[in-house]
Amino acid sequence: MKTILVAGSKGGVGKTTIATHLAAYSALQGRRTVLADADPQHSATRWAERRAELDSAVLPVDASRRRATWRDWLPDDAEQVVIDAPAGALAEDLEVFIDHADAVVVPVQPSALDIEATVNFLNTLAKVKRVKKQKLPVGLVLNRTKPWTNASQQALAMLQSWPYPVVAQLRDTQAYVVLVGLGRSLFDYHSAQVRDHQADWEPLLKWLDKA
After folding, report:
1. pTM here?
2. What is the CATH number of domain 2-210?
3. Would the pLDDT of 64 be above 80?
4. Is the pLDDT of residue 128 over 80?
5. pLDDT, position 170
6. How far is CA 57 from the centre of its chain?
7. For the chain, domain boundaries
């Protein structure tokens, strides 16, 4: 069973969007997929509930109230677990998830406030023994980027100087808001309109395969 933790210390950076898309992709590949929702807002759970009738349904598990025992609620045949961490949490708050994670995905938006908040989170993550020993891969995702703008280019240049790799750049689009509201993902569609956005995810998916 592979476990992916999507986390960061600032709200509104796209953790739930990334977590739900990773869960949808996994389910569409035929894996028994669980979405552990550790965010008290339960947006990821509502997304999974809207998806329940699909062949590629994802099982939601409430990991916000029973953090210490969240793994007890996983089915025995689960093949992939994606954890949507709560906003504002630092590494020490996520210990019960980090201990079982095979990779940590950290979304960052191209703004000074988001980058500063991410530095704070990564500083706490750097103290985790498995991260220190490079046993737990950590990847940054530049989210809601507009590649043609100076702000996005400067943010990317800054992130590339950090000790963790930038494993994807996801372009800004309102499609994500609509899709999450429908219990869907970009990977559920095959039109030319979504192919470019699907391509944005390929480096992240390849990185996770190796993690």
Report:
1. 0.94
2. 3.40.50.300
3. yes
4. yes
5. 94
6. 18
7. 2-210
Q: From CA 136, how far away is CA 26, in angstroms rounded? A: 20
Per-residue pLDDT tens for 35-63?
999 999 999 999 999 999 999 999 999 99
For residue 33, give both structure tokens.
């997929």
Q: In residues, how long is the chain?
A: 211
Going from the C-alpha of 10 to that of each of 33, 117, 152, 173, the distances in angstroms are 26, 6, 18, 20
Q: What is the DSSP string of the chain?
A: -EEEEE--SSTTSSHHHHHHHHHHHHHHTT--EEEEE-STT-HHHHHHHHTTTSTT--EEEE-SS-GGGGGGGS-TT--EEEEEPPTT--GGGGHHHHTT-SEEEEEE-SSHHHHHHHHHHHHHHTTSHHHHTT-S-EEEEEEEE-TTSHHHHHHHHHHTTSSS-EEEEEEP-THHHHHHHHT--GGG--SHHHHHHHHHHHHHHHHHHH-
Cα 41 to Cα 49: distance, rounded to the nearest angstrom: 14
